[in-house]
Design a protein that fits this description.
This protein is mainly alpha-helical. The protein has one helix and no strands. The longest helix has 61 residues, at 2-62.
Length: 63
């Protein structure tokens, strides 16, 4: 009886920790995915014209 009582909270605690870990993992995965999309969009919007401008300046320097 005592052993059952000691095992039961540990298993429920492990389950809660595993559930929290899984939810944190999925949330961080989703957050990383959204951050990748945001960084890709910011690179596409802001750094791409800068790269095109640098390439044009390099061509202008070549001529």
């Amino acid at each position: 009886m005592r052993r059952k009582n000691t095992v039961q909270p540990n298993s429920s605690l492990n389950f809660i920790l595993y559930d929290m870990k899984a939810s944190i993992k999925t949330s961080t995965h989703f957050r990383n995915y959204s951050i990748q999309i945001i960084t890709f969009w910011s690179i596409f919007k802001f750094y791409q014209p800068c790269a095109v401008w640098r390439v044009l300046m390099n061509f202008e320097g070549m001529f």
